[in-house]
Specification:
By secondary structure, the protein is α+β, with helices and mostly antiparallel strands. It has helices spanning 13-27, 35-46, 60-67, 74-90, 100-118, 146-151, 167-170, 229-234, 236-265, 283-296, 308-315, 422-429, and strands spanning 172-176, 182-192, 208-217, 219-228, 267-268, 303-306, 338-339, 342-346, 354-358, 363-368, 371-375, 378-381, 387-390, 396-409, 417-421.
Length: 435
């Protein structure tokens, strides 16, 4: 026997259709569901929705309450009945046909039409919300026309433009499988005595020399990145690009660190025989003076390093006839830019107005290949510290990128690189003013 939610006597039109639909749905509930309880809950939810004449009251607030998820809303009723049926399934009790929720969802379009007709065309969504996932959140691809899909193309990744660092071009660099904590070598020390022409039966002069042990202690350049596991799993192309960019950044930062070391290790300009010889010395004179100091120590400068702004400033200098001293750009047969015969390298790491001149190959670098390791760690929160977060608990991991290296200029090669200031050297080169 069918359970009757409301007596349909006297109802007509949309009101009759709505009540008959609900009566039908309740009567088709599985046998295991307590239909009296359903009738009781639905009657409670519909309380006040009809007037004495049996017409639906057009109170939108009441309609929203009816459809809502509070204790008396239809969504709450559906949820309760769905949980009850799922419980029956779990204990092995068969459930006939579809659940009440599924059936009512299929018929809800008709109910929405009734409500919309009665409520001034206000459309209400009554379908229960779902947890958003990768499968159900982004939709619409299937509806795209084939022509549009065929026209899609993915452009190549576009990186930023970075200045090319010169450090590895001018040093004697070796990449090894594994470096040691200390690297040591022997340098020539002081010598005493001298060879001389000795007469027959004469005393041979005593000559001696010595060796000095020197060493370098390893250093490490390293950094880390932290990713969510979903990013690495579902954005594989972006993840691969970022990993490549991180390695490139390590090399750039590594080169910047080495440049700072070179600036620190380079000897200052202290003077040469060219000082005080010129009325109006130019930047070319300053470079030549540094070269003279280097060669006076037995080295042969072949590489010149300066800021790119100084390169073009010097290149634009003109003689008395208006001719440029430097053909721009000037290159040797190998495509390398040269100035005054020196291999020219530019770097923004060199301050404007300064330069380095030296003999390449005497500055030593020994390093390992870049190492990449993945693992879990903790993230410190706040400063001062207010807490820590575990990567594993927060569904993320970290990648460590690092390399170990030695870099040094042997003591006996000090002076092979000179750091100069254009204005300061030109001041030393300027001839005294005669009265």
């Amino acid at each position: 026997m069918k359970k009757i939610l409301f007596d349909v006597k006297g109802l007509t039109g949309d009101n009759l259709k709505l009540i008959e639909e609900l009566n039908s749905r309740i009567s088709e509930l599985p046998e295991q569901v307590d239909k009296d309880e359903v009738v009781k809950e639905v009657k409670s939810a519909f309380k006040g929705m009809f007037n004495d004449k049996g017409d639906m009251a057009l109170d939108l607030k009441k309609v929203e309450e009816l459809i809502g998820e509070d204790d008396k809303g239809i969504r709450a009723i559906l949820k309760k009945q769905g949980e009850a049926i799922e419980h029956l399934k779990s204990v092995g009790t068969p459930v006939k046909n579809k659940t009440f929720k599924t059936e009512l969802d299929e018929k809800m379009a008709d109910v929405e039409n009734v409500v919309r007709a009665k409520a001034g065309q206000v459309k209400l969504s009554v379908k229960a919300a779902a947890i958003m996932t990768l499968e159900n959140t982004i939709t619409g691809d299937a509806a795209l026309p084939d022509e549009l899909l065929e026209s899609f193309s993915v452009g190549a990744f576009v990186p930023k433009r970075y200045a090319r660092e010169y450090v590895f071009d001018i040093a004697s660099r070796r990449t090894v499988g594994e470096i040691s904590q200390f690297k040591t070598w022997l340098e020539e020390g002081d010598e005493e005595g001298a060879f001389a022409i000795v007469a027959e039966g004469g005393l041979k002069p005593l000559v001696s020399t010595s060796l000095v042990r020197n060493f370098s202690e390893y250093r490490k350049v390293a950094g880390k990145t932290v990713y969510t596991e979903e990013f690495a799993k579902f954005r594989k192309e972006a993840y691969a690009i970022i990993q490549r960019l991180i390695k490139q950044k390590l090399l750039r930062d590594y080169a910047a660190i080495l440049t700072v070391d070179l600036l620190a290790d380079a000897s200052p300009y202290v003077g040469s025989a060219l000082d005080g010889q010129y009325e109006n010395p130019t930047d070319y004179h300053a470079i030549a003076a540094a070269a003279a100091q280097i060669e006076a120590l037995g080295f042969f400068p072949d590489v010149l390093i300066m800021n790119p702004q100084d390169k073009w400033r010097i290149g634009m200098l003109q003689d008395v006839n208006g001719q440029f001293y430097l053909t721009i750009p000037t290159t040797d047969p190998n495509g390398q830019t040269r100035m005054m015969g020196f291999m020219l390298r530019t770097s923004t790491k060199i301050p404007v107005g300064e330069f380095i001149l030296g003999e390449s190959g005497l500055w030593e670098i020994e390093d390992e290949a870049i190492t990449v390791r993945m693992g879990y760690g903790v993230t410190v929160i706040g400063s001062p510290v207010t807490g820590v977060e575990s990567d594993l608990d927060h569904n993320r991991f970290r990648v460590i990128v690092e390399t170990y290296f030695h870099n040094y200029i042997a003591s006996n090669n000090e002076g092979s690189f000179v750091k100069g200031d254009f204005d300061a050297i030109k001041a030393l080169l300027t001839a005294p003013v005669t009265p």
